[in-house]
From TrEMBL:
GO terms for cellular component: membrane. CDD domains: EGF_CA, FA58C, LamG. This is Contactin associated protein like 3. It is a single-pass type I membrane protein. Residues 1-20 form the signal peptide. It is found in: Membrane. The lineage of its organism: Eukaryota, Metazoa, Chordata, Craniata, Vertebrata. PANTHER family: CONTACTIN-ASSOCIATED PROTEIN-LIKE 4, PIKACHURIN-LIKE PROTEIN. It comes from Sus scrofa (Pig). Residues 56-163 form the F5/8 type C domain.
């Protein structure tokens, strides 16, 4: 390819309000001065505009063509538009969009953190707009066609929409920092807002440090390319319960691209946002505010006498738009305000450009072939690499005059150097460990007579002299990352697949390789590379492994280790435990201890309880107060309060109770001259508290709001004047006992007693375990008796992961079980034919479907169980005990399922009885006349109740 750069041209590019693609509103016009650069022939910039008479269409259509725009300065770009070549059969159907500040070190724009391709045009005339969320702040844009009309060539007309971008930068050299001292009167110890952007090639460096005299401090630091945030409120010498709060966010932040940071602190409540990833947490400490000095250091810790408890390096890179509580810090230092003190070192107000050119090996078929001086009596090469893959060829160098070669490759995350010669034992060197951690690692290879060594990150490993080559002469070619598919013309051989990752700073025989010349076609040869860009991404950020699953990754995908989590599946979504004792009973289990996962695939952890499998399956949940507890010497001013701690959290208990058909808990109050109610004014003297944290004055066997006991409800109290036995206030032991069964108030969490201060006055109490039976999910059915029968519910919410399961029986040959639509996305589960159940869906990557075919028919009027799951890793369908069918999701496709219509159940011509359960969305249906109660559990795992007619 040939670079063509035009002179400055002045054109009008409209700035649009792109809040709605269907209604673009022109706000104003602004003059942009820009260069046009492309990979082939000169073109008129004006003809490139949407609806212009022309367009860009290179003579050769391949994936190495691109069209580049230079806007003259950094702009905020909010959307782009594409169109095919004017009056032609040339258009692009999909493309990459890349951006850069300097025309070097390009970065792909990704949607939803994963989508790398943009939809293009279906013809030459229609205009396709793409809104950029978030927007791009850059000077250069590059459009790289991926696919085009197979009956034509690449053809594009483009337009860019956006506005001016305000940027103030400071460049710190790793020895300098900024110390901001502010007016003490302006200090607010309760609230702070700090925002900044940074870019760097270094994986370590302090961005911000602020400390006080008593150990309070805030530190923001890069460590291994991640942001480490440390905050401490309170005396650092206090017990470990007041230890500093630390948090790690972000990944691969040493990529020489801008990353945004926002710190919002209100007391000990902190919001930390890095790029698009936000985390809220509560800082530890004794106080609700920080005692900090009246100065903040940016870029390092320059102040003498400041003691820090961690190793640190100064930040080496650029800071942009640095604000503290609305104060523009960079503007202060640029205008030489007296109370901003730069430390020793170089500080400049323009951002230095990258010195190295990275290259991305996109696939196992990628390779970079470079020439080298042949027949030299030594072989040397150096480079840096980063990858997630455990294995792959890094370098092959053929040898002259003797058969054989040098192989440098990764195996199980370790670097291995192999010298092989036919008829001789290979010489092997192993160095490094865990080199597939995504960090940059430096490698140096050196071989000469009787000497063979490899250096990894400064650590030298060499072979014994007896294992070194007797003679060695360099070959004429070096193959980085892999071998050509047709390697007949070369000697390149590798027992492993190609390398996938990034390389930079490649040198051969102590000479740095000019990778831009490689890109221009004047040096070496390559395949499936992306030059001047490192395309590595962290697929474990955010972590899509649910329920504490451990995320690991390769270049193409991520994996979840669900061991010891209690969950299974590609993303640890599915609980391996049942939701109730009733469910265990239906599996044929007998009485015993079982783990219950009360919300299925929701966020609550499983917990252990006892299931008593009598004719009814009883769930028994114990607590720490099952023994009789005696109480004396209490009065309203000095009450007794007994609390109960259960084997499960209140959230787990609430889910279990809501799941059950019936729950009860026996509460016994023993009394001798200890009343429950003051007979004079009706003031309660003892009461209990349930999960709603409200005072309850009714007792076992009674009903809410009656302030009675069981005997008062049944009319058999020992003194008919009172509603409770204990209110008779007799000098002898009696009791009020019974079961509390109003589920909304269970379980009992606390009991309060105040009337044991009189002579001979005494009380005692005993609370039994929480007992529940039944499962509201079992055998609630709905019948669809006509072709027009259906049910509808609120929109299904399962953006990242969701599963639906149900039982059905029917005599119909086809029909839809359920369907939910979005603008383009949808899900549908249907009986496609008597023996086929199909799950079809679209999350933005195009329609997909998975079918399970049975050797027997499903329309046999017998119950059949269907389970469907979709997550960002895969989709699956299982019917009864047939083998599940799975379909992997695209590695770089849309991940969010976005629906907006109602969920329809039983649509189309299906005559069936349907029992529907979903652990991310479940409904229990029962009919009484025309009344329908629907319980819906949304993806947030909250419960709502609706009534429909």
């Amino acid at each position: 390819p040939i670079y063509i750069t035009f002179l400055f041209l002045c054109v009008f590019l409209p700035l649009w309000d792109v809040s709605s693609f269907g209604n673009l509103t022109l706000i104003h016009e602004q003059i942009f001065f820009f260069f046009l650069t492309n990979s082939s022939l000169p073109i008129s910039p004006i003809s490139l505009l949407i609806k212009g008479a022309g367009g860009w269409s290179p003579l050769v259509s391949n994936k190495y063509q691109w069209l580049q725009i230079d806007l003259g300065e950094r702009m905020e770009i909010t959307s782009v538009a594409t169109q095919g070549g004017y009056g032609s059969s040339n258009w692009v159907t999909s493309y990459l969009l890349m951006f850069s500040d300097s025309g070097r070190n390009w970065k792909q724009y990704r949607q939803e953190d994963s989508i790398w391709g943009f939809a293009g045009n279906a013809n030459a005339d229609s205009v396709v707009y793409c809104r950029l969320q978030p927007s791009i702040k850059a000077r250069f844009l590059r459009f790289i066609p991926l696919e085009w009309n197979p009956k034509g060539r690449i053809g594009m007309r483009i337009e860019v929409f956006g506005c001016a971008y305000r940027s103030e930068v400071v460049d710190l050299d790793g020895k300098s920092s900024l110390l901001y001292r502010f007016d003490q009167k302006s200090l607010s110890p309760i609230k702070d807002i700090i925002s900044l952007k940074f870019k760097t090639t270094q994986s370590y460096g302090v961005l911000l440090h602020w400390e006080g005299l008593n150990g309070d401090h805030i530190t923001l630091e890069l460590r291994r390319g991640k942001l480490y945030f440390l905050i401490n409120s309170g005396d650092a010498k206090l017990a470990s319960s007041h230890a500093p709060t630390s948090l790690t966010l972000g990944s691969l932040l040493d990529d020489q691209h801008w990353h945004s940071v926002l710190i919002q602190r209100l007391g000990r409540q902190v919001n930390l946002t890095v790029d698009e990833h936000k985390h809220h947490f509560h800082a530890q400490g004794e106080f609700g505010y920080l005692h900090l000095d009246y100065e903040i250091s940016f870029g390092g810790i320059p102040a003498p006498g400041k003691s820090v408890s961690f190793p640190h390096k100064n930040f080496h890179g650029c800071l942009e738009n640095l604000y503290y509580n609305g104060v523009d810090i960079i503007d202060l230092v640029d205008t030489v305000v007296l109370y901003l003190e730069p430390s020793p070192g170089n500080v400049s107000f323009s951002c230095s450009q990258p010195q190295s050119v990275p290259v991305t090996f996109l696939s196992p078929r990628s390779y970079l072939a470079l020439p080298g001086a042949s027949r030299e009596d030594e072989v040397s090469a150096t480079f840096q690499f980063r990858t997630w893959n455990k294995a792959g060829l890094l370098l092959f160098s053929e040898l002259q005059l003797v058969s054989g070669g040098l192989l440098l490759f990764l195996n199980d995350g370790k670097l291995k150097l192999n010298l092989y010669r036919p008829g001789k034992l290979p010489s092997d060197i192993t160095a490094g460990v865990g080199l597939n951690d995504g960090q940059w690692h430096s490698v140096s290879l050196f071989a000469k007579r009787n000497y063979l060594s490899v250096t990894v990150d400064g650590q030298v490993a060499s072979a014994a002299p007896s294992m070194g080559p007797e003679h060695i002469y360099s070959g004429g070619s070096y193959y980085f990352g892999g071998c050509p598919d047709n390697s007949v013309a070369s000697k390149c051989r590798s027992p492993l697949s190609g390398f996938q990752g990034c390389m930079r700073l490649i040198s051969i025989s102590h000479k740095v390789v000019d990778l831009i010349s490689v890109q221009q076609g004047s040096l070496g040869n390559f395949s499936d590379l992306q030059i001047d860009s490192c395309g590595i991404t962290d697929r474990c950020l955010p972590n899509y492994c649910e329920h504490g699953g451990e995320c690991s990754q390769s270049w193409d995908t991520f994996h979840c280790n669900c061991a010891n989590t209690g969950y299974s599946g590609a993303t640890c979504h599915n609980s391996i435990y049942e939701q109730s004792c009733e469910a265990y009973k239906h599996r044929g289990n007998t009485s015993g201890f079982y783990y219950i996962d009360s919300d299925g695939s929701g966020p609550l952890e499983p917990f252990l309880l006892y299931c008593n499998m009598t004719e009814t399956a009883w769930t028994i949940i114990q607590h720490n107060g099952s023994d009789i507890t005696r109480v004396r010497n209490t009065n309203p001013e000095n009450p007794y309060a007994g609390s109960f701690k259960y084997v499960a959290s209140l959230e787990q208990l609430q889910a279990t109770i809501n799941h059950a058909e019936y729950c009860e808990q026996e509460l016994t109050y023993y009394c001798r001259k200890s009343r429950l109610v003051n007979e004079k004014d009706g003031t309660p003297l003892s009461w209990w508290v349930g999960r709603t944290n409200e005072t309850q004055t009714y007792w076992g066997g009674s009903l809410p709001d009656l302030q009675k006991c069981a005997c008062g409800l049944e009319g058999n109290c020992i003194d008919s004047q009172y509603s409770c036995n204990c209110d008779a206030d007799r000098n002898e032991w009696t009791n009020d006992t019974g079961f509390l069964s109003y589920k909304e108030h269970l379980p009992v969490t606390k009991i309060v007693i105040t009337d044991t201060h009189r002579p001979h006055s005494e009380a005692a109490y005993k609370l039994g375990p929480l007992l529940c039976r039944g499962d509201r999910l079992f055998w609630n059915s709905a019948s669809f008796n006509t072709e027009a029968s259906y049910l509808h519910f609120p929109t299904f919410h399962g953006e990242l992961s969701a599963d639906v399961s149900f039982f059905f029986k029917t005599t119909a040959s086809s029909g839809v079980f359920l369907e939910n639509l979005g603008i383009t996305d949808y899900i549908r589960i249907e009986l496609r034919s008597p023996a086929v159940v199909t799950f079809s869906f679209d999350v933005g990557n195009g329609p997909s479907e998975i079918s399970v075919q049975s050797p027997t028919h499903f329309n046999d009027n017998q119950w059949h169980h269907v389970r469907v799951e979709r997550n960002i890793k895969e989709a699956s369908v299982q019917v009864d005990q047939l083998s599940p069918r799975r379909q992997p999701a695209p590695a770089d496709g849309h991940v969010l399922l976005q629906l907006n219509s109602q969920l329809f159940v039983g649509r189309w011509s299906l005559f069936l009885v349907l029992y529907l359960i979903s652990e991310s969305f479940w409904v229990c249906l029962f009919f009484f006349a025309s009344f329908l109660i629907i319980l819906q559990k949304l993806s947030t795992m909250t419960f709502k109740e609706f009534s429909l007619t």
